[in-house]
User: Fold this.
Amino acid sequence: MKASKAAKNAQAVFKKDMDAKKATLKTKSDKVAALDKELKGLDQKSNAWKEKRDKLAKEFKELKTIENKMNQELRKEDMDLIACSVVSLQE
Assistant:
Protein backbone atom coordinates (compact mmCIF):
# COMPACT_ATOMS: atom_id res chain seq x y z
CA MET A 1 0.00 0.00 0.00
CA LYS A 2 1.18 3.47 -0.82
CA ALA A 3 0.61 6.30 1.55
CA SER A 4 -1.30 9.28 0.25
CA LYS A 5 0.37 12.60 -0.34
CA ALA A 6 -1.39 14.06 2.72
CA ALA A 7 -0.16 11.17 4.87
CA LYS A 8 3.39 11.63 3.61
CA ASN A 9 3.24 15.35 4.36
CA ALA A 10 1.87 14.62 7.83
CA GLN A 11 4.70 12.15 8.43
CA ALA A 12 7.28 14.74 7.37
CA VAL A 13 5.81 17.35 9.70
CA PHE A 14 5.64 14.79 12.50
CA LYS A 15 9.31 13.84 12.02
CA LYS A 16 10.42 17.49 11.91
CA ASP A 17 8.47 18.26 15.09
CA MET A 18 9.86 15.19 16.83
CA ASP A 19 13.43 16.13 15.89
CA ALA A 20 12.94 19.66 17.26
CA LYS A 21 11.56 18.31 20.53
CA LYS A 22 14.42 15.84 20.84
CA ALA A 23 16.89 18.70 20.38
CA THR A 24 15.19 20.70 23.13
CA LEU A 25 15.26 17.69 25.42
CA LYS A 26 18.95 17.07 24.66
CA THR A 27 19.84 20.69 25.46
CA LYS A 28 18.03 20.53 28.79
CA SER A 29 19.61 17.15 29.57
CA ASP A 30 23.08 18.54 28.86
CA LYS A 31 22.38 21.47 31.19
CA VAL A 32 21.33 19.09 33.97
CA ALA A 33 24.46 16.97 33.45
CA ALA A 34 26.68 20.08 33.61
CA LEU A 35 25.03 21.23 36.84
CA ASP A 36 25.46 17.77 38.32
CA LYS A 37 29.16 17.82 37.45
CA GLU A 38 29.57 21.29 39.00
CA LEU A 39 27.76 20.14 42.14
CA LYS A 40 30.13 17.22 42.64
CA GLY A 41 33.10 19.60 42.71
CA LEU A 42 31.75 21.80 45.50
CA ASP A 43 31.95 21.46 49.27
CA GLN A 44 28.59 20.18 50.53
CA LYS A 45 28.58 22.63 53.42
CA SER A 46 28.92 25.74 51.25
CA ASN A 47 26.12 28.04 50.18
CA ALA A 48 27.20 27.59 46.56
CA TRP A 49 26.59 23.84 46.85
CA LYS A 50 23.11 24.40 48.26
CA GLU A 51 22.27 26.88 45.50
CA LYS A 52 23.54 24.51 42.80
CA ARG A 53 21.64 21.61 44.38
CA ASP A 54 18.42 23.61 44.34
CA LYS A 55 19.02 24.73 40.78
CA LEU A 56 19.79 21.14 39.73
CA ALA A 57 16.60 19.90 41.35
CA LYS A 58 14.59 22.59 39.54
CA GLU A 59 16.23 21.88 36.18
CA PHE A 60 15.76 18.12 36.60
CA LYS A 61 12.08 18.61 37.41
CA GLU A 62 11.69 20.81 34.31
CA LEU A 63 13.49 18.17 32.22
CA LYS A 64 11.10 15.44 33.37
CA THR A 65 8.09 17.70 32.77
CA ILE A 66 9.26 18.50 29.23
CA GLU A 67 9.98 14.83 28.58
CA ASN A 68 6.54 13.72 29.79
CA LYS A 69 4.77 16.47 27.85
CA MET A 70 6.75 15.63 24.73
CA ASN A 71 5.91 11.94 25.02
CA GLN A 72 2.21 12.71 25.43
CA GLU A 73 2.24 15.03 22.42
CA LEU A 74 4.12 12.52 20.30
CA ARG A 75 1.69 9.73 21.20
CA LYS A 76 -1.25 11.99 20.29
CA GLU A 77 0.37 13.05 17.01
CA ASP A 78 1.16 9.43 16.20
CA MET A 79 -2.45 8.43 16.79
CA ASP A 80 -3.65 11.34 14.65
CA LEU A 81 -1.25 10.32 11.90
CA ILE A 82 -2.50 6.74 12.01
CA ALA A 83 -6.10 7.95 11.89
CA CYS A 84 -5.29 10.19 8.92
CA SER A 85 -3.63 7.29 7.12
CA VAL A 86 -6.60 5.01 7.75
CA VAL A 87 -9.03 7.60 6.43
CA SER A 88 -6.86 8.12 3.35
CA LEU A 89 -6.76 4.38 2.68
CA GLN A 90 -10.53 4.07 3.01
CA GLU A 91 -11.14 6.72 0.36
Residues 5-90 form one domain. The helical segments are 5-40, 47-90.
